[in-house]
């Protein structure tokens, strides 16, 4: 374990924010950044992530094609307002659906992901270009990308300033960085009391708009746009209603499937085909998307959990 201080302010003092899974997140007194300290060292983190293939439900992620495609199209609509074509890099490309959609829109996409089976599925089944590894381990030509994109990746980065400088170096001057992340640092720590919703220590840093602006400014980016969508489905009442509705549909007529045995001896089998789109899931994704991105864009965001989409340009 190693103690860390704020990446922006150094040691300006912290206050306790939230504890879960035996880890503690603190908030910086200087800028409000929320981060885990002490945290596992890089070596310890690697060991934690080595169990990841059994921890992340790879099959579920690959089957969830409807949601992945929906999110990809939304992101590409936004990217399309600023860049119509060119080389695009996605960091944390998972099953590769975003890259496939990006290719269909005329981009020349490349992905990076640390999870081997995802990389195999994306390259062998979707036929997209993905490198297995991290931003630090994969060799890519500096200044060779027009767009860098990542979604729900930022909180996992152990060294966000270094990572953003690497993204900057990969972009041509004037290139576009688009990313999506939460707004945890804007909310009081009490909001998470008794929950594991911050996913510590997988999520090492939590930002809000103010801290995202600091991160961009310190790493050579000019922010063009920050879009805020209130996550209305994460509010307690609608969330409970949605879960009830889902359980109504999901368990009708068939008993709940037993949890698969997390057995290290049985490795995940990479599917050889793209799963067919399912009607119910497609409808659910459209309703979720409407609530999050259409209602969530106009709902009051004060004190609410939100997803932030940031568009920045490399200076
Ligand atoms: Zn700070």
From TrEMBL:
Q: Which SUPFAM superfamilies match?
A: S-adenosyl-L-methionine-dependent methyltransferases (SSF53335)
Molecular function per GO: methyltransferase activity
Gene3D superfamilies attached here? Vaccinia Virus protein VP39
Q: What is its EC number?
A: 2.1.1.-
Is Membrane given among the entry's keywords?
no
Top enzyme category: transferase
Alphabetized, the UniProt keywords read: Methyltransferase, Transferase
The protein's name in its UniProt record: Class I SAM-dependent methyltransferase
